[in-house]
Amino acid sequence: MKLDEAKQQFVEAWGTLGTNWGINRTMAQIHALLLVSDEPLSTDEIMDKLDISRGNANMNLRALIDWGLAERKVKLGERMEFFVGEKDIWKVAVRIIRERRKREIDPMRATLRNLTLIDDKDDKKEEYQKFIKLVKDIDAFAESTDKIADKMILADRNWFYGTLMKLMIK
Amino acid sequence: MKLDEAKQQFVEAWGTLGTNWGINRTMAQIHALLLVSDEPLSTDEIMDKLDISRGNANMNLRALIDWGLAERKVKLGERMEFFVGEKDIWKVAVRIIRERRKREIDPMRATLRNLTLIDDKDDKKEEYQKFIKLVKDIDAFAESTDKIADKMILADRNWFYGTLMKLMIK
DNA sequence: AATATCTTTCAAAATATTTTGAAAGTTCGG
DNA sequence: CCGAACTTTCAAAATATTTTGAAAGATATT
Question: Which three-class secondary structure string do you get for chain B?
Fold first, then answer.
């Protein structure tokens, strides 16, 4: 396989993967393209290499910046904007975790807490108890994973790869 | 809020959440409905409560069974099949993790390993090195999370909630 | 202030996913 | 083997998501 071919495949693979992580194909592909590019890329280069429209490129670049997975880079003397991708995989992971938490876990936990405010506790006692247990169990689990996410976000990658990994994997 | 209303909201919330986890809305809603139902439900009851077609109910029930999130339950003397949901949230989580790993992480790692088989190492030395580092970094990260997933799948929930949590959160 | 260069927006079009429902398939009792 | 009771399939319809591209918005240059 040639290097360029490998890069091409990487872009495609990353695009497919992204789909499973709440990132749409194009967004993931742009991200992948930025990852394998040494130089910052302009919107036009991205449009060209991925064969997508300007609007699409613009929208997804903004989303990437929003997630903290890419940033704008102005080149001296150039009017056009350029973009670079975050290449530190630890940071990429942390940012995806943070973003997903914001959009999924936090709202879910808020909803769950709401559901425990039931006012016909008296009748259907058994049924009520079971429901509350279910909701509390889910919330407890969400809290645990949430705390792990927290820890990852704050942790140093070395702590994660080193200490924790040794602890867990042995 | 009334209990039935709370259950209703739970089904809706779980449906929304599922969407972010590669589970489609109906599949998640059926799962939620089974979670809040004390008695096993028949396909017709599910169709009725969620207002969905027979084909849809059937397809998603099979998917749930496939994931290990629900199981068939035959009632003595009844011809019709009934379904129950897995109510142990730990098991639910473990099964979702296992399923996602199978569909996402494993294929991705296979692809990544492939990408390192590049045969024009000599020219573009710098560029080649950078690409290989990127791919290896991603694979190393995937391996770490994979091992955590492994550990979770094998671990006792008490180990997870107790020992690990104390270690991590403190 | 007019023009050129570049970015953003957004309604409409294209694409992808999910749902329907009727028909085909299966299984059981008689 | 037949018909009843149920389950499964799948092509077409409905719905949801993504993409396009032209127009509107910025901002720098002359």
Answer: CCHHHHHHHHHHHHHHHHHCCCCCHHHHHHHHHHHCCCCCEEHHHHHHHHCCCHHHHHHHHHHHHHHCCEEEEECCCCCCEEEEECCCHHHHHHHHHHHHHHHHHHHHHHHHHHHCCCCCCCCCHHHHHHHHHHHHHHHHHHHHHHHHHHHHHHCCHHHHHHHHHHHHHC
